[in-house]
Design goal:
Number of strands: 5
Largest sheet: 3 strands, antiparallel
Helix content: 25-40%
Strand content: 15-25%
Number of helices: 5
Structural class: alpha+beta
Oligomer: single chain
Strand order of the largest sheet: 1-2-3
Length: 153
């Protein structure tokens, strides 16, 4: 006979536009399959992101407890989004998209000051606060290269 497993917390990772959470996909199915009422998450998420620019993609890490209650933590916007905004890249097919051929196709430029500012934003996040600013700048530069953005001094 199979053993019954103990119920434990489940983690759901979502990227949702600030102030634009709705029970429709991707939020509804992701949380509904875990037994959480997605409308409760949407109301709280929209309230906590009301001070942000609407539409900025905000990663959220939702922890669902065995009693179907939940809590979530918000993270800083994705590095690629911040880089594409700094480079002034235009939307393609209603989305910000990087270069198609990473390392060969350049779609914009950012200065080292932009890289430094993005690294400061990322360092404000609790899980990245222990990393040096130099290390974060190097990772932002690497991300820029993979998005097709040139870093100029």
């Amino acid at each position: 006979m199979a053993r019954k497993q103990l119920a434990r917390e489940q983690v759901v990772k979502l990227i949702v536009g600030a102030g634009q959470a709705s029970p429709s996909p991707p939020v509804g199915p992701a949380l509904g399959s875990k037994g959480v009422k997605s409308i409760d998450f949407c109301k709280e998420f929209n309230a906590r992101t009301a001070h942000m620019t609407p539409g900025v993609p905000v990663p959220a890490r939702v922890t669902v407890r065995p009693d179907r209650s939940f809590h979530f933590e918000l993270r800083t916007p994705t590095t690629s989004y911040l880089l594409l905004q700094a480079a002034g890249v235009k939307e393609r097919k209603n989305k910000l998209r990087g270069g198609g051929a990473a390392g060969r196709e350049k779609i914009g430029e950012v200065s080292l000051k932009h890289v430094y500012d993005i690294a400061k934003i990322k360092q404000s996040e609790l899980r990245l606060s222990g990393l040096s600013l130099e290390g974060l700048c190097k990772s932002v530069i690497a991300q820029a290269r993979s998005c097709g953005i040139a870093v100029v001094p």
